[in-house]
Design goal:
The protein contains one helix and twelve strands, in the order αββββββββββββ. By secondary structure, the protein is an alpha+beta fold. The protein has a single domain (14-184), classed as minor pseudopilin epsh fold, CATH 3.55.40. Strands 3-2-1-7-8 form a five-stranded antiparallel sheet, with helices on one face. A five-stranded antiparallel sheet has the order 4-9-10-11-12. Strands 5-6 form a two-stranded antiparallel sheet. A hairpin with a 5-residue loop joins β7 (136-139) and β8.
């Protein structure tokens, strides 16, 4: 009178495995481009934050040690170094303390391609990603910039950009490029 129910075989069928793999690949195809895009934006943001922090350390070192501190940029290598310059010759000589040597992340470089500048009042295309003379920032013993105003333009391979600018009072401000409206914010 009662039907006996046979136990189901343990495990999964080949069809279930193939379906699961197809779902995983489909979700991966959707997610990976977004993760890559997020990673590029993160690298750019990280690069500009580290740069601004290092420049603030250079400024405070100049004030505390009462001597010039130089940040020298290498656009080709996407790198920069910061060093004390007690003799004021803007060259790192033997015995002068290097505060650090830094490289931008792999997909980030000093570049102004396709940007308008300066960020505070754009008037034309950016031709030089480091607008400070000889690609150097010099902080004097008061923490002020020798050479006035300037900007440093940084871009990632996706075309996102940031600019770090100094005004006449040697105050730093970071700007972000809006690709759609072609403006700084």
């Amino acid at each position: 009178m009662f039907c006996k129910v046979l136990p189901r075989e343990a495990g999964v069928s080949l069809l279930e495995i193939v379906t699961s793999i197809a779902v995983v690949f489909t979700l991966s195809a959707i997610a990976f481009p977004q993760i890559g895009r997020y990673w590029q934006a993160y690298q750019l943001d990280s690069a500009i934050q580290v740069l601004s922090s290092n420049l603030e350390v250079a400024r405070y070192t100049a004030i505390s040690k009462r001597q010039d501190v130089v940040a020298r940029f290498n656009v080709i290598d996407s790198s920069y170094e910061i060093f004390e310059d007690p003799n004021g010759n803007v060259t790192r000589d033997a015995g002068e303390l290097q505060l650090g040597s830094y490289a931008l992340p792999r997909q980030v470089q000093f570049s102004g391609g396709g940007l308008l500048g300066p960020p505070s009042n754009p008037s034309g295309s950016v031709s030089d990603p480091i607008t400070f003379g000889n690609d150097r920032i010099i902080f004097n013993l008061e923490g002020k910039l020798n050479g006035g105003t300037g900007s440093i333009y940084v871009q990632n391979t996706a075309g996102d950009a940031c600019a770090l600018s100094y005004n006449m009072a040697s105050r730093m401000k970071i700007y972000n490029w809006n690709k759609s409206s072609q403006t700084w914010r």
